[in-house]
DNA sequence: CCTCGTCGCTAAACTGATTTAGCAGAGCAT
DNA sequence: ATGCTCTGCTAAATCAGTTTAGCGACGAGG
């Protein structure tokens, strides 16, 4: 790859100057006393020869590689990863950086290997990303340089980027209240593990907190809270069926994520109920399938692209206070309406 | 990052030998006449000091970076990309290589930039990936080194990795025939553009070819073929509704991809039909949602991980004939059964 | 005793950039 | 004429490895 590349020496020779001069001109160094004419000649020579610096050679001297490592537990392979990487990629490009991607697959040996591989390549910094928003233990080796945690926190109080799940909980609850739902709002997806163990999830507790605070402030209590062993479609399906078997039917269901909502749609469809006429559904994540459903699902979106972008900004530009919370915008679609049988008219959305 | 790393000189000094000796030992060079004892000392010193070579320094001399560029049009961000990257990552790790990821977003300027960025970093080779299986134009700059096309072909007959869509078409048709479906098989997702223009899709034509050849060989004709402007859920929904409005109801529907099948499920559900008792559905891709559906969808899986892996193998190990077709395994789930009203018993699956 | 080959190892060149230290010449004041 | 500063530029060191060329000691053969 690139066998006969033009080197700085070639440029210097063509410009009739020394490598030093060429280097300084091309790097736009201030305070050098090279003549305007020398500048011209160097630029012209570089242009004519199509000169591109050799990053390896440069970084050997400067210890900067303009390369960021994106290390994830397993995120790079899941559907959730796309946005994270894409955002990071964009922000990196804007800063003339490039992304080296590795995956630990949650395996200690792989992690060790991955980290050595990137450290050997002298990356300028590391973005350590998690698939699920959670607290994690950062391998000590990467603490030797700049690190930003993406979708994660750690005991070390490292700079990190997190989705604002609590605020999303507020938004979701407010939306339901705004449509006139009051005392017949059901919640699907309680999960003690996720709520209690920050190493498993930070989202569950935060979303719940936001929802509860908002409803409480409006003097509203949840009709029911259904526990689920996981946040998968089948559990949403089971939970919803159980819900429909109870005497008092809810006017709205909050699902802790879209996969649960997916299952809820299936159960509601089977029961012959229409969304949102009979029951409204609202959720979190904005999984791609949310807009495949009929009616399309209203959900608070995980701002993956923004998060990936923010991580790079934090890493390269510094500043910004540490737990950087990225807002989760509500995707207003068609799954939320006024409570069944109410004379209420939906607000514009 | 890694300010005070141990260098080869440190190792050599500790072993009481020259840098040359240390280098040769650590690289396992044959034909050197260094004593067994010298080997011992170098290994011991490297181990004790935790020596790790500086890749930049090495590659400056050797012109090998043990880095592969993964350039995609837009693939890295979609749900389809995950497996591709994951497979490539795995295969790269096995060969002690690392992946540099960039995205062109289908934009010429971005592409130009991305390619310069990776060429500046002296990557050992490039994997050029497309989101949709198609023929594309390869930017000349990357032809200066080893390239493998992933999920794509080109006019230049470069080495490439493709899913075996035609064989998948055969499998899908065979499955339906195997369950006893004959003359009432409908097809959803015909699309002239996709079938005709290889720069848009290679899959449509290949899948269709496989299906037709197989049915023809069994003396079976398709009941109907429905055209769709895109392969999205809404089009599958519309097409299925249209299908159900016809006098003769199909016993099985082949969808050209899972998103169409998703829409088909919705239409069938609304019509009160049960899968597979009333109608069987089978499809292509194995999108993650395929196993969220009720019943779970039988579909010929795009072998993304295998493909990513194969691309790296092709790039690094060479050999293997060029259009490397990766089989698409059928995920046998619950959406296919014997034709409605038939006394037929489903084969084991 | 001289030459030759082999063994075990090393000095130094080389990769392509950045950076430090400093040189030659011009202009000015003393 | 001498010393000084300023201008415009360059030689050489440096980064951390790999690779080439070859050196000194030793033993064998003539």
TrEMBL record, chains A, B:
UniProt keyword annotations, A-Z: DNA-binding, Repressor, Transcription, Transcription regulation
Gene Ontology MF terms in the entry: DNA-binding transcription factor activity; transcription cis-regulatory region binding
Residue ranges of the region described as Disordered: 329-349
UniProt domain HTH lacI-type: residue ranges: 6-62
Domain of life of the organism encoding this protein: Bacteria
InterPro entries: HTH_LacI (IPR000843), LacI/GalR-like_sensor (IPR046335), Lambda_DNA-bd_dom_sf (IPR010982), Peripla_BP_I (IPR028082)
Family matches, as CDD domains: HTH_LacI (cd01392), PBP1_sucrose_transcription_regulator (cd06288)
Pfam family, one: Peripla_BP_3
Name used for this protein in its record: LacI family DNA-binding transcriptional regulator
């Amino acid at each position: 790859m690139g066998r006969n590349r033009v080197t700085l020496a070639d440029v210097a020779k063509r410009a009739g100057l020394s490598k030093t001069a060429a280097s300084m001109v091309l790097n736009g160094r201030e305070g050098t006393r090279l003549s305007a004419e020398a500048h011209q000649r160097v630029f012209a020579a570089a242009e004519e020869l199509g000169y591109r610096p050799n990053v390896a050679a440069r970084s050997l001297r400067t210890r900067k590689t303009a390369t960021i490592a994106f290390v994830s537990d397993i995120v790079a392979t899941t559907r959730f990863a796309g946005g994270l990487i894409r955002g990071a990629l964009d922000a990196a490009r804007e800063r003339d950086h490039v992304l080296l991607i590795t995956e630990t697959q949650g395996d200690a040996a792989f992690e060790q290997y991955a980290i050595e591989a990137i450290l050997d390549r002298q990356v300028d910094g590391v973005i350590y990303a998690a698939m699920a928003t959670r607290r994690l233990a950062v391998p000590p080796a990467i603490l030797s340089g700049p690190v930003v945690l993406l979708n994660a926190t750690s005991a070390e109080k490292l700079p990190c980027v997190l989705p604002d799940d609590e605020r999303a909980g507020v938004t979701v609850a407010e939306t339901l209240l705004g449509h006139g739902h009051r005392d017949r709002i059901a919640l699907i997806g309680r999960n003690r593990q996720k709520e209690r163990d920050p190493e498993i999830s930070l989202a569950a507790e935060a979303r719940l907190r936001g929802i509860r605070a908002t409803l409480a402030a409006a003097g509203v209590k949840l009709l029911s809270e259904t526990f689920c062993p996981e946040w998968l479609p089948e559990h949403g399906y089971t939970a919803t069926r159980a819900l429909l078997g109870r005497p008092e039917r809810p006017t709205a269901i909050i699902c802790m994520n879209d996969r649960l909502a997916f299952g809820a749609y299936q159960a509601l469809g089977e029961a012959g109920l229409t969304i949102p006429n009979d029951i409204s559904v609202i959720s979190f994540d904005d999984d791609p399938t949310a807009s495949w459903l009929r009616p399309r699902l209203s959900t608070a979106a995980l701002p993956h692209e923004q998060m990936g972008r923010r991580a790079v900004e934090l890493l390269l530009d510094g500043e910004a206070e540490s737990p950087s919370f990225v807002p989760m915008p509500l995707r207003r679609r068609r799954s939320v309406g006024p409570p069944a049988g109410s004379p209420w008219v939906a607000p514009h959305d």
